[in-house]
Amino acid sequence: MASVPAAEVTPISEIGPHRFTPSTISETLMNDDMKEAYPRSPPDRILHAIG
Predict the structure, then answer these.
(1) What is this structure's pTM?
(2) In angstroms, rounded to a whole number, what is the distance separating the alpha carbons of residues 1 and 15?
(3) Would you write out the chain's pLDDT as a tens digit for each of its 51 residues?
């Protein structure tokens, strides 16, 4: 596995007096990042972990 620099995606809603609404690209990036960082385990691994 190659070593890749980490980055954090944090949408902002305000900078000083300026207000923003994060766009769908922000949500897409966060969702894709979560899928990579926390892939779902197969059900048998979950059952084994529970006991």
Answers:
(1) 0.46
(2) 38
(3) 566 666 666 778 899 999 988 788 888 888 888 788 777 665 555 555 555
